[in-house]
Design a protein that fits this description.
Layout lengths: L1 E6 L5 H12 L3 E3 H10 L3 H12 L5 H12 L8 E4 L5 H10 L4 E6 L2 H9 L1 E3 L6 E3 L24 H22 L3 E5 L4 H18 L1
Parallel strand pairs: 1-3, 1-4, 2-3, 4-7
Antiparallel strand pairs: 5-6
Helix pairs in contact: 1-8, 2-3, 6-7
The protein binds adenosine-5'-diphosphate and zinc ion.
């Protein structure tokens, strides 16, 4: 299955992607994660990418598409993948169309007020990438998976959050229209499991069809 996940920052799309990966055995390809890895290398490309990430702006299409294409050409993607964070604009969707088909698009929906609230209190593990939230029960400041001290991403600070949500808002409608009846919408106002349940049902049916 070749899936695209749409959802604003903080919508829980990364968490949903992990559940799909573990049930359906297809890798999660997060362009945000790929970019953060590139930044860590400290290369000239990393420096360039960092400038965009820190502002909450989109990385230029040519750079993004190169990184994405390279990743989905790897062996683990031959039975499918979940794209998390790509495409983020109509232009990117048209680029993607040139290299692969898409079987379905899952759009994770949550209102912007709630998104902002989740993002400012979000904390990330620098080692394994796990995400936690200062408002969740049992939050200690250390990673629940590996024990490393959590940190706040630079782009989870108020100014960058506003920019990211604004970019999302401007791009989402054309994307939804582009994918038309391939789109399956789900609200993430409830718990991660409540969000996942209808998605799983949808994907089981889809898998039987393709
Ligand atoms: P979020 O969805 O929470 O904003 P991501 O980890 O998906 O976080 O992305 C972080 C940043 O990486 C974005 O703000 C943007 O700068 C860059 N990025 C990720 N995906 C793309 C993309 N498809 N096109 C351009 N830039 C991207
Ligand atoms: Zn961790």
């Amino acid at each position: 299955m070749r899936l695209v996940l749409l959802g604003a920052a903080g919508s829980g799309k990364g968490t949903l992607a992990k559940k799909i990966t573990s049930d359906f055995g297809i890798p999660q390809i997060s362009t945000g994660d790929l970019f953060r890895e590139i930044v860590k290398t400290g290369s000239p490309l990393g420096e360039l990418v960092k400038g965009y990430l820190d502002k909450g702006a989109l990385v230029p299409n040519e750079v993004t598409f190169d990184v994405l294409k390279n990743r989905i050409s790897q062996a683990d993607c031959k039975n499918g993948f979940i794209l998390d964070g790509f495409p983020r604009s109509l232009d990117q969707a048209k680029m993607l169309e040139k290299v692969t088909e898409v079987d379905a698009v899952i759009s994770v929906e949550l209102d912007f007020e709630e998104l902002e609230k989740r993002l400012v209190s979000r904390r990330t593990c620098p080692k394994c990438g796990d995400i936690d939230n200062v408002n969740y029960q049992g939050f200690t400041g250390s990673c629940r998976k590996c024990g490393t001290k959590l940190f706040q991403r630079d782009d989870d600070k108020p100014e960058a959050i506003k920019a990211r949500l604004e970019v999302y808002k401007n791009n989402i409608t054309p994307l939804i229209n582009f994918y038309g009846d391939k789109v399956f919408k789900v609200s993430s106002a409830g718990s991660p499991d409540e969000t996942y349940a209808p998605v799983k049902t949808f994907l089981v049916k889809l898998e039987a069809k393709i």
